Model the fold of this input.
Amino acid sequence: MTLRVAILGASGYGGAGLIERLSRHPDAKLEAVASRAHLGRPVDDAWPHLAGLVPLSFVDAEAAIASADVVMCATPHGATAPLVRAARAAGKRVVDLSADFRLDAETYAEWYGPHPHPELLDEAVYGLPELHRSELRGAAIVASPGCNATAATLALAPLAAEGLLGQVPSVTIVTGASGAGRATGLGLHFAELSENARPYKVAGTHRHTGEIELALGRLAAQGKDSRSHGPRQEVRLAFNPVLVPMSRGILATAVARPERELDDASLLERYHAFFDGDPCVRVSSELPQTKAVAGSDRALIAVRWDRRTGSVLAMCAIDNLGKGAAGQAVQGLNVAFGFDETAGLRLGGVWP
Ligand SMILES: NC(=O)c1ccc[n+]([C@@H]2O[C@H](COP(=O)([O-])OP(=O)(O)OC[C@H]3O[C@@H](n4cnc5c(N)ncnc54)[C@H](OP(=O)(O)O)[C@@H]3O)[C@@H](O)[C@H]2O)c1
Done:
C-alpha cells in the first residue's frame, strides 16, 4: 500500500527537501503541500528548481492534514505543536522537523518556554534513527532532530555510550546560512554574511545545547538503542556555533577528555562498531568536509586521539538540509513505517 504524505511548511527549505525526496520515494505518494504565502499557487511558485516536476498546488494546513495518512511538519517551533495536535486528533501520524516534540516538558520550558501541548509529548520518539531505531518503528510522532544537534550528537555518541565523555565535552560548529530557514534577517544579508565568520548564541545559549545534552545523557545511561523517555545521566556540554558564508553544511568539531588513555586505532574501531549497520553514517580515518556532504543525506565522521592533550577529537560533517533536516525526517518516516531506511534518500552528494 502506498503511504499518502502531506507536507506543512512546504514553502520553506525543509519543506523543499521533503518535496524532493517524497517525489522519488518508492513507497510514498506526495498528496498535498501546504503554505500560507503561496496558497492556491503551483509548487513552481515557491521552487524554481522543481518547475514542471511536481503537479501540485499549495493548499491550507487543514486540507493537507485531511488528505494524507502521515503529516510532515516543516514549520517553526511553537507554531507546529497545534498543527501536530490537529493531525493527531484526525488520527494521522506525524513526522515533525521542528523542536516542539524533541524535549521533555521541563527541558522545553527551559529553552523555548512553556510547551503548548505537553499532553502529546509521550507519543513522541526522538527521530535520530541511529540511536532510536527500535523505538521509532510504529511511532505516532517522530520528533526529527535539529541540524546542529544531529552533527554534535553523532560526533560524540560512541564516547557517550561508553562513558568516555569526560567532564565537559565541547562542540564547535561552523554552519551555513540555510540553517536559519528561508526567511531572511540582517545577519543573513549577503553583504554581512559574505567574507565573514560570525559566532552566535555562544556560551551555553544556543537552544540545541539542551537537546544534545539529553541525547548524550540517554546514551550514557542506556547505550545505543535508547528509549526517548527512558533514564538518562546528567551531561553538560560546551556548545558554540559560528555562521560562515556557505549555503548549506555543518562541520562539528568535538573534543572530549576521557579519564583514560586511548589511541587512534581503538577509537576508530569503537566508532566503526557503534555505527555498524547505519546506512546514513560513514566513519573513516579521512577528515570530513562540508562539500563532501552537500546534497547528501549521510553524515561523515572521523575520530582521532590527541596524545599531547589526552583528548579525543571527533568531527562530523552533514548537510543541514539533508541528514540535518529533510533527509533525516524521511529516514525517520522510513523506519517508523517499515520501509527501506534509505528509500527516497541520496547518500552521495554533488561535487564540486
Ligand atoms: N533549516 C535547517 O537547516 C533546519 C534543520 C533542521 C530542522 N529545521 C526545522 O525545520 C522547521 C522548518 O525550517 P526551515 O528551515 O524550512 O524554515 P523556513 O525556510 O523558514 O520555512 C518554514 C515554513 O513554515 C511556514 N510557516 C511559518 N510560520 C508559520 C506558522 N505560524 N504557521 C504555519 N506555517 C508557518 C512558512 O510557510 P508559509 O509562510 O508559506 O506558510 C515557511 O515556508 C523549523 O522548525 C526548523 O527549526 C530546520
Observations:
- The chain has two domains: 3-145+324-337, 147-319.
- DSSP finds ten helices and 14 strands in the chain.
